[in-house]
Amino acid sequence: MTKPMSMNMSEITRLMRAGQLTEATRMIQTGLGGSSLPQMPQMPQMGQMPQMPHQGRATPAIPEGARWTMGQHAAAGQARQYRLYVPASAADGAEGLLLLLHGCTQDPDDFARGTAILAAAEARRMIVVLPAQTAQSNMNKCWNWFEPRHAATDGGEAAFLTDLTRTLAHDHAIAPDRRFAAGLSAGGAMAVILGAVFADDFGAVACHSGLPNGAASDMGSAFAAMSQGGRDGGAGVGCRLLILHGSADGTVSPRNADAVLSQALRRQPGLTRRAADARLAGHEVRIGRHRDATGTLRIEDWRIAGLGHAWSGGAPEGSHTAPGPSATDAMMRFFLDGAD
């Protein structure tokens, strides 16, 4: 049985705001029974938006005729920069638009390299937007999935990201059912929130190594959710959903994938599951496919044996990647082919 937490959250919050992170972490570790803690988003501090960060590596290769531009968007009380990729193959129209959300400590260029998303987007005529979280909004550049105000419909990061998606989709004439969202870790948790709170704005979402909607409500419960599994009492994803999680993830417990799935099944009842287990890229992969009465694939759930907290099959040029079946390819197939 999990040991119940006993934490003085007001004192933890005071220490975090005072910059006494070591002391705050020690208190949280004690409350969690002394378990080791993964790197975790810190208390956000608002300020002026800096220029988009770079990790000191080359910009991803851009084929002739494609556009890899930088923009800025403001909505829902938020303002962020973003990268936009319009593939050369989409000159006569795109197949869809993907909102791709990086994980903690990453930025759009780094995430684009690691996921190899630009090559996949070129092959599949997919427009991709990669917004940048700022260190002013979160000290580790994590999306603030653990704060309820950022899952609201009328303000916060989820509302901002949805407005950004709507705006770019309008500019490129992309219908709601061809708008997609995906992310890794904190980005995966935010993609789940988008699929739950703004389900009508997205045809599908993908969560790689993320957490369920409503998994936490403050700093202490966020640590607990990551290490032990988040509660799944919030609304589940209402659009089509792809879940990917590694069995060896020591940063975000695989129990969180269970919770993301159970939330979605409650919101989308009556689905029929069939197993499609396979050995892919040297990993055993347990796959569950859930279809509705018409045969439409509504939920696909991948559990990848031996994978830690990293983008499966990602390129080593980017951070937080590991060998394995390509999550990027699985995501593209699910988004563009899975509803057929």
TrEMBL record:
<dbReference type="InterPro" id="IPR050955">
    <property type="entry name" value="Plant_Biomass_Hydrol_Est"/>
</dbReference>
<protein>
    <submittedName>
        <fullName>Esterase</fullName>
    </submittedName>
</protein>
<dbReference type="GO" id="GO:0016787">
    <property type="term" value="F:hydrolase activity"/>
</dbReference>
<dbReference type="Pfam" id="PF10503">
    <property type="entry name" value="Esterase_PHB"/>
</dbReference>
<dbReference type="InterPro" id="IPR010126">
    <property type="entry name" value="Esterase_phb"/>
</dbReference>
<dbReference type="GO" id="GO:0005576">
    <property type="term" value="C:extracellular region"/>
</dbReference>
<keyword id="KW-0378">Hydrolase</keyword>
<dbReference type="InterPro" id="IPR029058">
    <property type="entry name" value="AB_hydrolase_fold"/>
</dbReference>
<keyword id="KW-0732">Signal</keyword>
